[in-house]
Sequence to fold (213 residues):
Amino acid sequence: MDDPQATRSLRKPRGQGASRRGEILDAAKRLFLTHGYEHATIRKIAAAVGVSSAALYLYFPDKDTILHAIAESTFEELLARLEASQRRDGSDLDRFRAGLATYIEFGLAHPDEYRLTFLAKMMTPSVPGRPADPCEVPAAERSFDILQEDISLLMQAGVFTPADPIVVAEAVWASLHGTTALLLDQADHIDSSPATLIATVLKIIVKGLSETK
Fold:
């Protein structure tokens, strides 16, 4: 049984709680990826951080909350990158292309976070009573909104063929996610260079959206 006195002694001094929280998230990422979500217990995460289970509970009540926090952090950083891409000089189409490239570049630069965030459903089987999908966070919704808004704007300007912007945005996201996942986990099956593949995918997306029926 965890010692309450030890738990109190392991609490970070005032102002250093964020540091301990970060340590817990980093340890959880490693264990989720190496052992699988279901086998990475709170006790194992606490041991990896060097604290008791009771001390860890001061920061997170369960594994779902930890995974949710990882997803939140990942999407918030992705959102910041996407918003920056929308402030670049050039045409609306240039900014759309920049946003697509930014998405893939982010995933490749943050492979662990990307895998945990976007493969969360595969790692957490449907169980009665389990909280909602941990990837459902405001920054994720806003990231998708940026894609949808860009597509709607280009449709209104006559650059893209009119269609349901939500459906089109979902199709574009599927292409981006598929490309990112392929480069992360199946790159040895690809003959072309990552840069060439990415450029070709983006070209196909833009050309496909621009074609008239």
